[in-house]
Amino acid sequence: MSPILVRPVREQLEHDRVIRLLQARFRRRFEVGINPGPEENAPVGAGTSATYPDLVLMSMGRGRRVETIIEVETAESVNNLEAMAQWARMARLRSPFHLYVPAGSVDVARRLCADHQVAVAEVVTYHAIGDQLRFTTVYRAPAETHSTGSSRATGARAPQRGSRAGSSQRRRAGDARAAGPARRSASRAKAAPRPRSAKKAARKPSRSSKRK
């Protein structure tokens, strides 16, 4: 829970319920740390600079690298003070920042993110249908930097590979053309018949040999 906000009991119960539902939702793919209410179980960072988002999604490997941090808000906590003190701070961390807000507060949340230049990776709304909660992603930041970098790298490598392959193919074709006439001439030389005069000379003995 944010240190600058004391929610009404009913909203706090709803807030913690959303946290636990998200924990069950993500636990198959991540190791999920939660900080419901005043608890501080899963910090991001260390020492005095540690931050305690509502959910911390970590990789399941040995390094337990932080993949995503999630902050869950209620109708009371989608306000200017919360955006300056909490959202902006979490958005400056290295991991993608996801913001979950009630469905009726999405326009205010997006405006606050724009006003305070909060680099939010996703904005997700939640609303209750009976006893169940429904989550809907209403905003996802475009991955322009990563896609552009990968496409440039791929584009830079592709011509080099293509030129090398093309040059090698052209060399092989030139060698084949150069070797073609020599092979044909050699085959013709092997298949050329012997002269008739040589054949007759080999068959008929000379007159001098008969007289002897």
The average pLDDT is 79
CATH topology term of the domain at 9-143: Trna Endonuclease, Chain: A, domain 1
Structural class based on helices, strands and sheet pairing: alpha/beta
What's the main sheet like? Answer: 6 strands, mixed
**What order do the SSEs take from the amino end to the carboxyl end, as H and E?**
HEEEHEHEEHHH
The total count of strands amounts to 6
* Count of helical stretches: 6
How much of the polypeptide forms β-strand, as a percent range? 15-25%
CATH architecture of the domain at 9-143: 3-Layer(aba) Sandwich
The CATH class of the domain at 9-143 turns out to be: Alpha Beta
Distance between the termini: 130 Å
Strand order, main sheet: write it out.
Answer: 1-2-3-4-5-6
List unreliable stretches of 5+ residues: 145-163
Taken from the alpha-carbon principal axes, the silhouette is globular
